[in-house]
Amino acid sequence: MIDRRTLLRGAPLAAAALVAPALGQSYGDWPNRPIRAIIPWPPGGSTDVLARLVCEQLGTRLGQNFVLENRPGAGGNIGMDAIAKSAPDGYTQGPATIANLSIAQFLYAKLPFDPEKDFSVISMHWELPNVLVAPAQFCPANTAQEFIAWAKSRPNGVSFGSPGVGTTAHLSGSMFCDRQKIDGQHVPFRGAAQIIPAMLSGDLTFALDNLASYMPVIQEGRMKAFAVTSPERWPSLPQIPTMAEAGIPDFVVTSWCTWVGPAGIPRPIVDRVNAALKDVAADPAMQARFLQTGAKCVWSTPEAASAYAASQRPMLKEMVRISGARME
């Protein structure tokens, strides 16, 4: 797995298709009209909020408005297909997550796009861990090891929720139960807005879901957070141990997002957007805003972002196998 230093300085490995401009062609006037940003998820969720934050900042730095278009459905595949099939002129961009670039090809029997060939990957955008949580009212455990022992002792096993089949929450929960020999039943929901009430009412035992969605209920004390799946403790919750510190080794699973366009965007345009994203990630105010949501605003070269997505695929392919997930 690529470490953070490699990610940030760029790896000289295979990148997404980034076609050079024709000899002598200039892109100095780009952008000279608004840019469409296709967001492959419904409005209001954490991923949508983070994309909107970045679009706001990119618009300021590039001097053109970003017109946001939510195109949810099929686990993000509808929106991603729309990006892939748009003109490679830099006027259609959008976020692509770990699910879109590194999980979908192992989960779906058929995709309308090729995650490895059909996008110009411009930069990393954000990263956040999953967090192992259980409702304080119904779970007596106070540590991850206590939770594992308690879960194993339950005669009817436990249930865990996720925002859908094949999400990192589903795959993480399945791998956690498989490795710890816990009898766990996956229950898919539409999102954390449904998972959290189910947990707080006692209808669901735990989740290993994206931290961003659980920050408020953790901070309020309604959820117990046992461990995060990042390689280091998370800045906004420094008191919560990593999975390794909690006695669960080899369990680094972060959710991440890249910024992409269709394959073939001229390199000068890619470089200009990449430079703007670098400025965004270097802005302390933006870092603070992202951390408030449970995420880190990050940046990388196009090559490093593509290499990182590729490096994640073997692990995620195995996680899909363990989960038994399959989508048509």
UniProtKB/TrEMBL annotation:
Transmembrane segments: none annotated. Coiled coil: none annotated. InterPro entries: BUG, Bug_dom1. Belongs to the UPF0065 (bug) family. PANTHER family: BLR1237 PROTEIN, TRICARBOXYLATE-BINDING PROTEIN. This is Tripartite tricarboxylate transporter substrate binding protein. It comes from Paeniroseomonas aquatica.
